[in-house]
Amino acid sequence: MRTPVFFALWVGIAAAVLALAFATGNDYVFFAGYVVMQYVVLSTAWNILGGYCGYVNFGSAAFFALGAYSTVAIYKFTSENDLYGLPIPVLMLIGGAVSGVVGFGMGYLTLRLRGAFFAIATLALAVVLQTLVVNWDYVGGSRGAYVVRPEEFAPLGNYIRYLFLIMMLLAVAAITVARMIEHSRLGYGFATIRDDELAAEASGVPTLRLKLIATTISGALMGMAGAPFPYYIGYLQPSSTFGLDYAVNSIAMPLIGGTTSWVGPLIGAVLLGSLQQIATVTISSAVNLLIVGCLLVGFVIVAPNGIVGLVHKYWQRKPDDFVGRRRVETDSPEAVP
Amino acid sequence: MSDRPQVQDLLQVQNLGKRFGGFVALENISLSVPAGERLGLIGPNGSGKSTLVNCICGTLRNEQGVVRFDGRRLDGLEAHRRTHLGLARSFQLPRPFVSMSLLDNIRIPLLYTVAARGTHHGAREIEERCFDLLREVGLDAKARRMPRDLTQVEMRKLELVRAMAAEPKLLIADEAMAGLTHSEVEEILSLLVRLNEHGVTVILIEHIMRAVMSFSRRLVVLVSGKKIADGSPDDVMRNPEVERAYLGQ
Amino acid sequence: MIFSYDLLINAIVSGILIGGFYAAVTCGVSISFGILDIVNIAHPAFIILGSYTAYIVNTTYGFDPILTAIVMLPLFYALGAGIYQVYYVSFEKYGQESLRGLAFFFGILFITEVSLVLYFGVDYRYVDAAYIGPAWHFGLLDIPLRILVPFLVSLLLIAVLQTILTRTFIGRAIMAVSQDQLALRLLGVNPIRIKRIAFGISIATASLAGAFLIIIQPVEPSVGREYIGRVFAICVLGGMGSLPGTVIAAMLIGIVESLTATFYGPSWAPAVSFGFLLLTLAVRPAGLMGR
Known about the structure:
The complex is a heterotrimer of chains A (337), B (249) and C (291).
Chain A: H1 3-24, H2 28-52, H3 60-80, H4 88-110, H5 115-134, E1 145-146, E2 152-153, E3 157-158, H6 159-182, H7 185-195, H8 197-202, H9 207-226, H10 229-233, E4 235-236, H11 238-241, H12 244-257, H13 263-282, H14 285-302, H15 306-315, H16 319-323
Antiparallel strand pairs in A: 1-4, 2-3
Chain B: E1 9-20, E2 23-34, E3 38-42, H1 49-57, E4 64-69, E5 72-73, H2 79-85, E6 87-90, H3 102-114, H4 123-136, H5 152-165, E7 170-174, H6 182-197, E8 201-205, H7 209-215, E9 218-223, E10 226-231, H8 233-238, H9 240-247
Parallel strand pairs in B: 3-8, 3-9, 6-7, 7-8
Antiparallel strand pairs in B: 1-2, 1-4, 4-5, 9-10
Chain C: H1 5-35, H2 43-61, H3 65-90, H4 97-120, E1 135-138, E2 141-144, H5 145-167, H6 169-177, H7 181-186, H8 191-216, H9 224-237, H10 243-264, H11 269-283
Antiparallel strand pairs in C: 1-2
C-alpha cells in the first residue's frame, strides 16, 4: 500500500471515529479519547527509537512536557501582550520543533553510550530539564500555570471536540511516519542498529547519524503531542507533567502491543489507554498504574513480542503477509554461536 | 622489503600500537599490502590478529601509529566511512542481523555502502544483486529464511558474502573457516580466490595451515602483539622464531 | 545568597553525613549494576519497601528501625534471589536483557510503588527512636543524631560488604563472575547461583537503606523516584562496583547537593546528582576509580 493511500485510509477511519464519538452525545468520550490518541502518538514516537533502534528512552515525559511548556510560554506571552493566541496546529509545530532540537541535543550527548547507560542518561536528562522548568518562574515554576481553554470551537461545539480531532489527526500522522520509516532504507538501518551495531557499522551504516535522526523524530513527535496539553488540562504542574507515568506508559504500550512495527504501539495505546481510562473512572487512578506495571512485567516475561507477536504465532503466517514487513523479532535462544 | 611503503600499496599500517589498560595488545606493527595481494595473517590465539583488524577497520581506536588506505589516512575515521572507502571485513564470530532475512542482510551493505559511492540502483536491481551474491555462496535457496535457520557453515558464508556485498577493494576474512570440514574449507577458499581474481585484495586470517599456505602469496606472523615475520610462505615457515611460536618452548 | 562560614561548614558536614547514607543506598546497585551488569532500576522501590517495613514494625511494636531491618535481611535476600531467578530465566538466558530487562525492572518499580500507595496511601510516614530528635553541638557544628546514626551504621555496612567481597570465597566468586564465568565453572562453581546470591545481597542492603531513609526523613511511596538517578550517578561516578569508590562518590554528591541546597535553594538540588551523572557519562564513563 502506497503511503498516501495509507494516510487517506486512516484519515477516513479517524473521520468515522469522530462521527461515532459525536453519536454518543457524551462529551466525556472526547476527553477520554484525547488521552488515548495522545498515547498513540507517544508510544509510536517512543517506538521509533526504542523498538526500531533498540535504544530505551526513559525520558519521554521531558519531551512531552517541553511541548506543553512551549505552549504555556507562548500563551503567557500572547495574553500578556494582548496578542491573538496562536492556533493549536501552529503550537504543535513549535512544540515539535523545540522537542526535536532537544532530542537532537540529547542524542548528541548520550548516543555514544551503550544501551543501559543511554537509558539512565535519558532519565537524568529528564530530571535536569524538569528542574530547569520548575525554576523558571515565567511559566509558573512549581506553582504551576493556568491556561484558559476557549469554550467552543465552531462548528464542532465544545472545544474538547476540537482538541480530540487535532490529536487524532496527529496520531494518524504519527503512524504514517512510522510506517514510512519502516518501509524505507532508514527502517533497515534502524533494524541493524538494534540487531548488531558493530556489524552495522562494518556494513557501512552510519549508526550515529541514524540514531540522531531517530531521537530527533521521536522527540519532535512527543513534543507535538504535548503542545495542546495545557489547553486540555487547564492547569499545568511540573511534577505531574514530567511524571514518570508518561515514561512507563510510553514504554509499556509498545512492549505490550509489539515493538517491531507501527501496529504494535497503536494496539498497545488503544487497548492500554482505554483500559486505564475505564479504570480511572471505575476504580481509582492509582490502580491504573498498577495495571500498567503488571501488564508490562507480564508481557515482557511471557510475550516478549507483544500482542503482534502473539498473533503471528497463533496464525502462523509469514510476517510479509500480515503487516507488510519483512522482519520478525527473534524470540528463541540465540542460535548464533 | 615489505616494510617500506610503496606508492601503489592499498593498505599501509605504520607503527600501530594498541593497549587495553595496562595490557599491550599490539606493539609497533608495520605492514604494507599492495593492491591485488593475497596476504595471510597468522599467529597463536591471543596474539592480536583480531585486534589489528579492529584497529584497521575502525572498530577500535589505536593509540599509536597510522593506518593509510588507498593513500588516505584513516585517523579517527568512523568504521562505516572506512567501509565506504572500500575496506570490508567479516567477523570471527558471525554477527548476522538476526531480525531480518538473508536477503535483507545482504541488502544492507548495498543500501548503505554501495549507494554511498554515488551509484543509484533501483529496488529491483538491488534485489537481483542480492540474489546474485547469495548464489555465489549457494545460499540463494534460503534467501528469505532467517539467520537462525542456518547451519554453522551457512552462517559463515553469510558473514563472508555480506562483507563482499559492500564491493570492497580490500576484504579481511577473519577466521572464516573455523570448524569447517575439508570440502567446506575448499569452498570458501575457492570463493576467496575468485574474489581476488576479480581484483579484490584479500587478507586471510586463519588457523588452518593448509588453507593459509595454499592461498597466501605472502604471510605475516603475529605473536604476543608483535610482528615476528613477514615474507613468502616458504621463507616464513622456515623462520626459527615462527617455529618456536608454533611448536612452543 | 547569604554566605557565612557557619553555613558552609554545616553544609559540608551535612553533605558528608548524607553521603554516607547515600553510599548505603547505592551499595546494592554497585553490586547489581556495577558487578553483575543488571540494570535494576527498581532498587529505590525496594528501599522504600524497607522503609515501610521498618515503619510497620516500629509503630506496632516500637522496635528500633535499624534492628528491624537487620532482622528482615533474610527476607529481603530471599526476595532478591527470587527476582533474579525470574530475570535470569526470562531474559538473561536469551541475551534479551537490554530492552526487556529494563522494562521488567521498570514495571517492578511501578508495581511496588503503586502497591504501597494503595495500601498505605500518600501520607508521609515516619518512625520513632531515641536518636531521632536530639542533635550534637560542636562549636559551629550542628549534627542531628538522626543523620549521624545512619551515617555510622552505613559505613559499618559498607565495611562488612567489602570484607565479604574481598575475603570470603563467595565474595570473590561474585567479583569473578562479572569477569570470567568460564573460569568459575571450571572451579566447579555455578555462576548463576553466584549471581543469585549477589543479587539477593543487593536487595538485602535495601532493607537497611530503607530503615536509614525513614530515620532521616519522612517517607511516602514516590520518594524512591528521586533516588533512581542519584543511585546510578553515584554508582557510575564511583567506578561501577568499587565499594570504596562508591563511598567517595556518594560523599562528593552529598556535599555538592548540600552546598547547592544551602546557597541556591533546594529546588535546584535534584539537578545536581543527575547533572553529575550526565557529566560523568559524557566525560569519564569509567568513574573515579573505574575498572
